[in-house]
Amino acid sequence: MIAFIKRYEGLWLFFHSPAAMIAAVVAVLIILGAIFAPWLALVNPYDLASFSLFDGLLPPVWEEGSNPKYLLGTDDQGRDMISSILYGARLSLVIGLSALTIAAVLGVGLGLAAGYYGGRFDAIVMRIADIQLALPAILTALLIDGIARGILPAAVQQDVRVAVLTLAIALSLWVNFARTARASTFVQMNKEYVQAAIMMGQRPSRVMFVHILPNILGPLLVIMTVDLASAILLEATLSFLGIGLPADSPSLGTLIRIGMQFLLSGEWWILWIPTLFLVALVVSINILGDFLRDVFNPRLR
Amino acid sequence: MVYFILKRLVQSVFVMLAVAFLAFSLFRFVGDPITQMTGVETSVADQERLREELGLNDPFILQFGRFTADMLQGDFGFSYRTRQPVAEMIATRIPATLELGVVALLISLLVGIPAGVYTALRPRGIPTQAILLTTLVGVSIPTFVIGIMLIFIFGVQLGWLPTFGRGGTVQIGGWESSLFTIEGWRALLLPAITLGVYQLTLTMRLVRAEMMEVMRSDYIRFAMARGVPMRRLHYKHALANTMVPVITIIGLQFGGVIAFSIVTESVFQWPGMGLLFLESIRFVDIPVMGVYLVVIAFFFVLVNLIVDLLYVAIDPRLRVRDVQ
Amino acid sequence: MLTIKDLSVKFPSRFGDFTAIEDVDMTIKPGEIHGLVGESGAGKSTVGAAVIGLLSSPGYIANGELSLGNTNLRTLTPDQAHDIRGDRISMIFQDPQTSLNPLMTIEDQLIETIQAHSDVSYADALKRAVDLLEEIGIKDAARRIKAYPHQFSGGMRQRVVIALAICTDPELIIADEPTTALDVAVQSQVLDLIRRLAKDRQIAFMLITHDIGVIAQIADRVTVMRKGRVMETGETAQVLGAPEHPYTRALMDAVPPLDHRIKRFRVPDEDGKGPVTGNAAEKWLLEGQQHALTGLTLTDICMRFRGPRTSLWRKPEPFVALNDVSLEVRPGSILGLVGESGSGKSTLAKAITGLITPSSGIMKLGDDILPDGKARGRKHPSRQLIQMVFQDPYSSLNSRHRIRDILTEPLWFYGFVPDAREREKLAAAMLELVGMQPDAIDKYPHQFSGGQRQRIAVARALLARPRFLICDEPTSALDVSIQAEILNLLKDLQAMFGLTILFISHNLAVVRQMADDTAVLRNGRIEEIGSTDSVFERPSADYTQNLLALTPVLPKAWQSTAVAG
After folding, report:
1. Interface predicted TM-score (ipTM)
2. Less CB within 10 Å around the terminal CB: N or C of chain B?
3. pTM of the prediction?
């Protein structure tokens, strides 16, 4: 019984936490919407032929002068808001998840090795992390963007935008993974099961990945959720600052930047609907992250 | 203790050198500095002469040494875009960003610490749950959206506060300050809140987590078992012990405050370093980018050195050696 | 004076209420030291927490009476309860390293406590605090009171803790494992102090401990608990000398005596059942034992670590963990290595297993030189021949691996058994050999108790077909009854396979039971080495004599009469 409870405690907690459940539902819905955007969306915002200027600036259905075809209205170009948002979320999630994967592989690898080998290797990795820390995420991202502008010819620049953005976000997130992995590895290194494995003469790679890694997944999973939220926020912020993605392939942040132009005019939906959507996505992910933190660190409950 | 501080000092110098190296590499390898400095009408021979004059043909390490030495003397080169000395450009922008950052940090500490203590001491109450939910939403709203919302509510709808610029400023020995006029404060309020909200939520959650951890410690339970008055227990015993880790994070956060001021400054058209940096990126103005980097790293290192000194002040284990 | 009647404490959980203690009765008179003894999970600390009103949330008193003198402790408001804490009831915690606020001076902590409960001026409070510290054995108290906790040694710190507990003249002190974190010599001083305070100041002590030796030494009366219930209570001599309850008897049987060696511990569930014999694992192990037994010789092992750097100008002083350690573990025998915390026992074990590199000295396994840590390759034969059983069964097994993976790892790693099915069969048979059900193989470590995990750890070590086994404090994390089972197991296995064992422990009585020869280690130096009987009966080093004299023992008459050997 006790073993059963321990094993499924996380699930039990989940089904007794309304906040976590709602957050999970919202996040899953948004992610599904993003995946199936090409089939769900009314128009393709990347394809100029699929929408028309004549449908521009239509309000959501519950307002006067709306067209029931466009549930949440259209922007100045005549693009359906729902379609733009679904495609925007798709792009935001693709960038966020790829950046997260790169950051996780790089950070966990370096952190594990630093914790395992210690000594000089650890010192070097941690000094690099310190320097990275002195240059906060947004600064790193802006800097990489600036460098890309300086190095790459203008023609190529548009094509590699997504890659540059992903790389910039990944570079600013790896430190979190590295520090967490290193700290957790240090704890595990003092555990006797690791000493037993080293004593047997097992390869360092086996000790790190077969023995230590499964034991530090908990805190890493928490970081992963929290950092997915940061990655999405960071992408939105960079696009908002106008150095992320251009207006013809809008992410959520670009949509908000476009909407800013309508802050003072009556077309509130162009700004606030994508904003609400972005916040709902990030809040859901953060609630899930918080929930995971509580599950893995029951003492804070 | 002296050793501890010296060690941190050496580490700081190391970080500064690394950042300076980064800035130098930017300058040297991103685009050709000569083509940037000269116009199209300059002949190739002139360009070569300039290259030689500026020492760009010297060994790499020598160039870096000269670059660092120049920086130490306050010579930061010239902007590609405006042809002005970068040092001057940055210097006029520093007060705006620093005032914004410090006020934002103060807001985050003055609200975040009491809120953290409250939610830690009453973990199960309804106010606590409400505060926790609010902060969760707080960390999830991008800074620029908070700025837009504040502008929309207080600037556009209510019309109470200005939505851009610094308002009235006063020159005090070359330092342009908005802290001495009511107009200045009115202009500062919205950007500072925008910048402070994110830090506030972080501070609050951190204080709460640390405080709860400390409240479970043996020495708090022992103080409880001795009947030490509750107020003293919470503030003298628990809060003081909470401060050690909290100060570290706040030191690290200060870098974040400065960086996020880029966003805030952009939303509110606040004429600080961040806005300058954004412009320099747009125009690939490498010298300005590099110097901004060095200045930010300098503030970061400085704040963290102050944090180390605070450590020593708070924690006797770093201050007093074993008597036995 | 303290009266507990029918006390029950429950912890509500989402799977219903968990009853921590039930129907506990107890009385403690002024000046009485009342021992509360039991194994982990007995609920003894919960009794103490309920009395002082500091049950950890969400625990609550479900039933029963609780009164101190004429005060009913159950009807107090939280404020009243807080006023009584310190004033009339106080508490001493286990670990003096963590029970003092590191950021405040001793003076601040003493004076805030005194002033919280009596209306005295700062100067008067200070005088009282200094006098108290002097009384409790801290010399030069007027100066030392200005110091911070980290400036005191462990023993001195526990004195400060005691001073804090008694500075308000409480009637009752709850001492929760007050000497468990201390070395033998300091423990004996602290126990003397408690006895003196009970006698001179008529303070009543509730002494919560798992250590029956401590109870025997200073408790006037004793209550034995198990799984939240009182098993037996009465005068110490009566309860421990002539136990009525079978549980108390079993507990007494499990306590290892210091002054003689017994063949096997009497363990209730195991009576009559010897070790499993004739199974596949036993045959497999005996197959591997064809060559002669292997001993270990250490010559002049030194281990210096770089000390912490405290000054820029002075070179850090090296910390000497091992100083010219020479010893021999005879083939097929058990060498006991005893020493207090920080004596270098574990460092020695790490040097032998190659985890660290000694600064100098020669190690030989049988006739072959053992390369030092870094020079010992991953494929060196000693990696298989030397195996280790660790102290903490909760961390020595990878909690993310199934028992199957843990046990079969050495079989394929050393290339003993190529076939996966065969490996699993052998692992299951080995589980049987160490007294576990073979179906344990499908489970995860967290599904087992500490004792069971230690059996699994022993099985893992044996599956490497070792010639030399290091047991580093293998029972110090276990309850005394479980300790008896594990020691029995190790004795059986040693007899079956003629293993050479280095048995490391801080517990003299355990070493007495296990070892053929004994070495005493102190500050990295061997104080004494010889046959176990001679070391324990005719110790030559002052240090050993002292250690033996200060270790709490049961009076001869109370000791288990079982299976003397």
Report:
1. 0.85
2. C
3. 0.84
